[in-house]
Design brief:
Two copies of one chain form a homodimer.
Chain A: E1 5-11, E2 24-30, E3 39-47, E4 76-83, E5 93-96, E6 103-106, E7 112-113, H1 130-142, E8 150-154, H2 159-170, E9 174-179, H3 182-192, E10 196-199, H4 206-213, E11 218-223, H5 227-236, E12 237-245, H6 249-252, H7 266-270, E13 274-277, H8 287-299, E14 307-311, H9 316-323, E15 331-335
Parallel strand pairs in A: 8-9, 8-11, 9-10, 11-12, 12-13, 14-15
Antiparallel strand pairs in A: 1-2, 3-4, 3-6, 3-15, 4-5, 5-7
Helix pairs in contact in A: 1-2, 1-8, 4-5
Amino acid sequence: MPDKINRRIIFSRLMIGEPRLEDFEMIEEPLPEPGDGELLLRNLYVSIDPGSRGRLSGRDSYVPAKPLGEVMDTQSVSEVVVSRHPHYRVGEIIAGYHGWQDYAVSDGKRLFRVDPGQGPISTAIGIFGIPGLTAYVGIRKLLKIASRETVLISSAAGAVGSIAGQIAKIDGAQIVGIAGGEEKCAFSKKVYGFDHMIDYKSDGNIPLALAKACPNGIDGYFDNVGGEILNAAVANMKRFGRILICGQVAEYNLEPEQRIGLRDVSAFVGKRLDMRGFVVLDHPEYFDEARKTMATWVKTERLTCREHIVEGLENAPKAFCGLFRGENFGRGLVHVADPSNS
Amino acid sequence: MPDKINRRIIFSRLMIGEPRLEDFEMIEEPLPEPGDGELLLRNLYVSIDPGSRGRLSGRDSYVPAKPLGEVMDTQSVSEVVVSRHPHYRVGEIIAGYHGWQDYAVSDGKRLFRVDPGQGPISTAIGIFGIPGLTAYVGIRKLLKIASRETVLISSAAGAVGSIAGQIAKIDGAQIVGIAGGEEKCAFSKKVYGFDHMIDYKSDGNIPLALAKACPNGIDGYFDNVGGEILNAAVANMKRFGRILICGQVAEYNLEPEQRIGLRDVSAFVGKRLDMRGFVVLDHPEYFDEARKTMATWVKTERLTCREHIVEGLENAPKAFCGLFRGENFGRGLVHVADPSNS
């Protein structure tokens, strides 16, 4: 039986610069009561997503700006604890967007039933959730990486980047990654199969390091960070190279007038570059294919994703703040509770 | 019969910042002698192209950096004065890339026979040359402007922009232009049919002026200038908007570290923008269609292009320098000589 209290972490202060613990507040509320056609969900895992930052400055991003006082609505894996909905039974495991709280009421929309045969339930919001779908659709459907092309991936040890790299490698590309620190770089080579890794913390001159790692230039750049690394990539793109802008972690914490941006737009003419912004939710037509294909690769151990699991809902804000200092290593998740049958 | 002297304007000093007269030198050489299979051409019109600037700083652009001492090889309309080539007769009018000189020897390659029925021979390097082809292919094949879309065009009174605007208008779009000065703006509305014109010299706040002129946002931006106008356009793009980077006149004179660039790359995710660099020479498969279609429009007076003709080869450098101060108004050409049968 559920406890009588629902802990919820709300967004309590508009962010300026790097997120801080004081930008969040934990409140306690009575357990919500599901009405007819509704469900009560108990969160088991919730996600820590750098992309949330864009909504927390009071400006609209690819989703509208988030109002103060609302719960952080990241992805979640939950157990149905009460069901007044015809399609869901108590005990089922469900993925959704129920965020940083112990319990949530759902009307049954935007839910996705987790297939326990596909792996640990946390993968429903990792490889089989937004990060994995983003990597798959980005590499295969938008960048359309072909065999023997050179692909650069930033945040290569992260949730999206590590999967994107492995998919490009499966498809026959040469994969070059950028990450921060020796441990992430070594792991990415060994486990994800990156051909070259550039450590942005120790390789001082990124454009030069890229030129060495990609002597024939970059065909496709899967950009999760923006900023100086985007500029270094542009300088090393091949003619007709493609850039997919998936995230801009280096820019999220900057006010508009501080942004680094992209300096050399002339290179777009010179090299006929193409740069496209990307949100995977625009492409649901590929989700089935992506999940099925990746499930096969996971089973045959061609695809893996490291999880960075933080224990306890109360630690979600700290994990989120750490993201922007490169403290996470893998898909950022918070373990909130275990399923009742475990 | 040709004179015995060939005046040639060579590129004599690597450019830093705005082009200056001293960056060019006029030299006199004996008339070149065509060998077997060659032609002697006498230039009638030569072009003044802002895009040349990119090659004159010692850096490669979409064409390799130009070595010092070479003649400025812009587009030309010429008359065949001596032919030792089986396919060309004396007196024929030919378009090519013979640049700022009175005479040139050609091996017969990269020549294009001018159809005198299509209009004044200067149009062969205007509407029917690179500027017109760039406008046609850019609007119809790359931006793929649809009826009722809003299109923004910078350098709207210029050779490419004015044709691009008219084609988008023929295709049913709402067209908004940016140009410098009241005269260019008034002319562009009256003659080219722009629905709105923004005068960057007097409309202080371009992002605001754009927001007013495009209250529903911009679907397609045909960018000839870059810099702050590109940034203002990005701020006003609609979701899934397309940006075609055709020229970057605002950036050409700046050293790499001074460039304005594009500040808000995050907007590419937020609005799923696409930005693509474009050189029309990559798309020869559309040239026939473009020339035929535009010839019909010219005949029916749906399409026009104002020419900015400077008299005398010796004035080419001055006209080129003036381009970057917005002194030209229309397709920049130098009238070098008249055909011998005129």
